[in-house]
Design brief:
With 68 residues, the chain is of the alpha+beta class. 32% of the residues lie in helices and 22% in strands. The chain has two helices and three strands, in the order ββαβα. The protein has a three-stranded antiparallel beta sheet with strand order 2-1-3, sandwiched between helices. Strand 1 and strand 2 form a beta hairpin. The N and C termini lie far apart (27 Å).
Length: 68
């Protein structure tokens, strides 16, 4: 499984997990043509990383300030 963070969007960044990075990018590109992945890593801990990341930034509507 992969943990990923998208490139900057108007609302901030999207954080998530996927089994197929290329397929996920195609899904996003359909809705947002200029989107890309800021980073992605393959790890057996993807779900735990996503949960902890979202928990840490739960009070923010976006994580713009995290990637300055």
């Amino acid at each position: 499984m992969y943990f990923y963070i998208t490139t900057r969007l108007n609302q901030g960044y999207k954080v998530g997990i996927t089994n197929d990075v290329e397929k996920r990018q195609q899904q996003y590109t359909t809705l947002i043509p200029n989107i890309d992945f800021y980073l992605y890593i393959q790890t057996p801990y993807a779900e735990e990383i996503e949960k902890s990341f979202k928990h840490k930034f739960n009070d923010l509507k976006s994580i713009k300030s995290f990637f300055k």
